[in-house]
Amino acid sequence: MKVWMSPQTDGKNRFAIRMIVGIIGIVILAIILVLGVTVLTIYTDEYKEMVSLISCILSVALLIFLSVRLGRSFQRDAMIFCKDGEDRLFVMDARQAVQYRRGIFGYIGMMGDIQKRLEVLKQQIERENALPIGAVEIQKVDGIQEHSNCYALTCQVRYQNGRTGKRTYILIKGYEYEGELLRLLERKQLFEVELKENRNPFFILLSLSIMIIFLLLCVLSHPYNAQLDESFYFPCLGIASAALCSMIYFIIKNRRGE
User: Fold this and answer.
1) Can you tell me the distance from the alpha carbon of 97 to that of 171, in angstroms, rounded to the nearest whole number?
2) What is the rounded distance in angstroms from the CA atom of residue 71 to the CA atom of residue 65?
3) Distances (CA, A) of 12 to 18, 23, 116, 185, 252
4) How far apart are CA 190 and CA 203, in angstroms?
5) CA-CA-CA-CA torsion sign (119, 83, 79, 136)
6) d(Cα 155, Cα 189) in Å, to the nearest integer?
7) Chain centroid to CA 36: how far?
8) 255: number of Cβ within 10 Å
9) Which residues contact 219 (CB under 8 A, 6 or more apart)?
10) Rounded to whole angstroms, how far apart are CA atoms 85 and 23?
11) 3-class SS letters over the chain
């Protein structure tokens, strides 16, 4: 069988060490940023509120960016693709075979279990030439949408119990022999499928417009401005929040190619 894995999983416990060090590094950075913002606020005489707000926004944005990067690496390293002698393509996620644990020590143990599971999967495929339990066959590919750091794959799959369904997989860039895997996925793509109109951009724009309108109403009805009755503030804030959630939903859906 042909196997596609992340090169970062080679070596004993390399995957687990990378993830644990990454999490600890983000936690330490968060503590340093909180202390830094606190000290900066104390020693700032003018525009203290503005400096504190901007520093908090930048700190949160940095932490979110690093967490997303680590999460993408985690997703790529935990997923394995393989092809058997009949040119059938399968995908396995080592995270689904590991029991969830709570707390920092539970997380460390979970990373170790995922590393062991990856080694077992690789041994079963390469040495024993056997299909691991939990492997999902990708029968057809409805669409491949490329992004700067990943591919969104909308697939028709068959599970080992014989059931079929539709799944979306996020293929993070960085696999060994990634071009060969993409060519195999393209051969399974259904080019004859009628293309459906993508209405996600319309709903994104609609949600954004509603959010902006009701945010303006929130500003006008806030006691500080008092341009509108104060009773409008919280209902408008609720509608703006719902519109924001809707916009994020359609953005994610559009990015996944669904």
Assistant:
1) 19
2) 10
3) 11, 19, 9, 30, 35
4) 26
5) negative
6) 9
7) 29
8) 14
9) 225
10) 39
11) CEEECCHHHCCCCHHHHHHHHHHHHHHHHHHHHHHHHHHHHHCCCCCHHHHHHHHHHHHHHHHHHHHHHHHHHHHHHHEEEEECCCCCEEEEEHHHHCCCCCHHHHHHHHHHHHHHHHHHHHHHHHCCCCCCCCCEEEEEEEEEEECCCEEEEEEEEECCCCCEEEEEEEEECCCCCHHHHHHHHHHCECCCCCCCCCCHHHHHHHHHHHHHHHHHHHHHHCCCCCCCCHHHHHHHHHHHHHHHHHHHHHHHHHHCCC
Q: Residue 220: name the closest of 243, 244, 237, 241 by CA.
A: 237
Q: What would the pLDDT profile of 20-66 be if each residue is shown by its tens digit?
A: 888 888 888 888 888 888 887 777 777 776 777 788 888 888 888 88
Asked if the model's pLDDT at residue 10 lies above 80, the reply is: no
Compute φ and ψ for 79, nearest 5 degrees: -100, 140
Local confidence band at 219 (pLDDT 50, 70, 90 cut-offs): confident
Q: Which two tokens stand for residue 223?
A: 């006691």
| Amino acid 229: pLDDT | 80
- Tokens (6 digits) for 154: 């909308």
Amino acid identity of 240? A
pLDDT tens digits, residue range 136-151?
888 888 888 888 888 8
The encoded tokens of residue 191 equal 């080019």
